[in-house]
Fold each of these.
Amino acid sequence: MLSIALIAHDRKKDEMVNFVTAYEHVFEGHKLYATGTTGSRIMANTNLNIHRFMSGPLGGDQQIGALVAENEMDLIIFLRDPLMAQPHEPDIIALLRLCDVQGIPCATNIATAELLVRALDRGDFAWRELVHKYKPGIE
């Protein structure tokens, strides 16, 4: 079971709901997290159970980022709106930087999300189980 975060900017929420609904069978075997409204909308349209954090502008991106920093998140699908300025842009950049630092796969558009979910369905992320099994302690 992998930990997967689902985040979508306002103009991408419908796209996220449609995407997760289409791949509900893939997501149902994993531990799901989402920012506030995105998680609510997905749960209203699927049978998935999602741990919801605050909305992104209120700290939800940072809450997910904390899990990434601790290497507790395995995959992130973050449908960003590249044409709309976000008031919490520094938090978004910090989250993406943490994904790069920790080597966490992160899709920021629907095309990449499709590739990652198909890989997830094939079992291509089994290596993340090893990361958790051999995670070194904090020194």
Amino acid sequence: MRILIIEDNEKLAKSLKKGLEAEGFVADYLTDGESGFRRIEATGDTYEVVILDRMLPRMEGVEISKQLRAKGISIPILMLTAKDTTRDKVEGLYGGADDYLVKPFAWDELLARLRALLRRSETTYVDEIKVGELVLNPNTHRVTQRGKEIQLTQKEYTILSYFMKNQDNVISRQEILDHAWDYEFTSFSNLVDVKIKNLRKKIGDTNGMLIETVRGVGYRLNEK
């Protein structure tokens, strides 16, 4: 899952990015409001949630959320702010934010609020996703097969999760890169193919029947 952080305190933004990536998310950050707004306009469907500081240079957080909602962009927004009065919170929520967290905040609370927003944004929330004998738990990030846990790297988990949520859909290599790596990453190598090869090995898909190669396009996860 990809998260966009818009926070002008670069030290905090980097800290959030590092913490989220340790939890298995993919995170990008920008340090001014206008750049953040333009990024969401251009690539908003790439991100599952936005962490948005209220006080930003060039364009404030409340204005960003108002304009996004006016354009029909419904991406979940967690607004961060040092302003803690009821009036400030109400203004932020009425401006289009989905949740509001006052600085300084506890990491565990931010993570819990993010996961709650992610659950709300899904049409149907499930504790487990099952494809054949594979079972993935989005809360614990555990993957099992026939009851036995499979040890995956963060990237392998992110890719498999993406496949399982889009079962039977053909997913291009570029879509996998966009989902599993941050915005600054560029690669002209066979990195995706290597990750898929490793993933197939771990789930016992030696003949490529489960993760099918769609020649010239990408990959598709089948229930076989």
